# Entry
Amino acid sequence: MIGTILKGYKIMEELGRGGMASIYRSRDLSLDRDVAIKILHPHLCRSSEDRERFEREAKLVARLKHPQIIEIYEYSGKNGDQAYIVTEFIKGKNLKAFVEGVGPLLPEVAAMILLNVCGPLKYAHSMNIVHRDIKPENIMITEDGLLKLTDFGLAQIMDMESLTVTGGIIGSPVYMSPEQVEGKRASVRTDIFAMGTLLYWLSTSRLPFEGATTAAILKAIAEGKFTDPREINEGISDALASTINRCLQVNPDKRFPNLESLEKDLKSYLDGSGIIAPESQLKEFFIAPSVYQKRLREKLITHFLDSGRKLYAKKEFSASLRALERVLVMDPSCVEARELVTASRRGKRMWSALAAAVLIVACAGGFYFIFTRIERPAPQISVDVKEPAVEVREPVPSQKQPKLPNTSVARAVSSARQEEMKGTLKLTTIPWARVFVDGNYVGETPFLKALELEKGSHDVRLENPFCRSYTERVEILPGKILDKRVRLTVQEQEHK
# Structure
């Protein structure tokens, strides 16, 4: 095929090959420019149904006029010996190849990429077109740092047809939605599910749904089982994890209803990270990714450290902890952040104890007020006819209210001081494990929250029926966090 001339286009090199067609870089001999030609496989050209689908894709994409959607120049028509579509040639890499060449991304960069993909996809939705095949291989990056969507509809339609009719799947199923797995009609929320899968991959360098076989992957997608992205990348905030989780809901009604609402979440997350003008920043990243990520990391550390200081000064301890923990993920050696974390934890405990004390006092005062306002029977008057009349009254309660006991306040403050003598154990295990501390069961990873323990030595035991038991004595320091990560050793199973 290389070197041949097809209707005025000279085939120069093959760019890619899929289940439906092959794509070639070609030269337009009339206009002296490079183009891309997508040629339907010969065995599919003999099928009128496949040729009609190919034509439908050409007409569908021809309707879309957006700077971030690949432009169609020409379609061969359905009656010739060959079926092909001529499009603009994008000099650059697809998103998958680009990211794999760069390495792990900062979560903020992942959010910027997804936000940029929202634009052209939202435009397609406004034209009543669902992409059905959002994945990094179908997103191109131009040399000047612009994202472009490609391959609208055909491959995914073909996949669904084969899934419904023959049970086979063409291409990778990892970006499919549960409704596509079940052979149901795709919708806007189908693309949103794929966007969630893309954001997960960009943030963690792993796919949410994996398996040894295609059947295992499809089962995981249908059941909605995936690892919390925060367990893979500690830099992922609760807000971004919530966005990913909402996109990947099995029930389409529980996902974002449209791309506008997803955009709003992503912009809010980036605003909270101090990132303005994400579109222009993303272009800087695509042009010089390593340099940009290094500079962005430094800016993020400065931003969250400054936020942590301000929030601590306002006594907003929970918010200051969230900001400072982001700093320590990027720079564990930051002494100021560590000191502020310790102070924020102490302040949070003190305020919680004082709030509890105030609540106890308020409740006690309320009970006393209610008690003193209860109506009592009128006093009895007794008269003896033989003696001078004497009025006998019940003792009248003193109008001076007794002082409320302050033991509850003292107890709460004492409790807060005792809390200062505790430390925190954060435990992460691979794979999951049942956790015992000093012989007592305390929960199961990955769902176990941070444990507050008395200062001193504690025996930790981890149990998993498929792994060797793990035991370690840990030392807890007051006001400090011990972040423990354990990889369990899988036991070899006996074969009979």
Observations:
- The first strand starts at residue 5 and ends at 6.
- Residues 290-363+407-420 form one domain.
- The chain is about 45% helix and 20% strand.
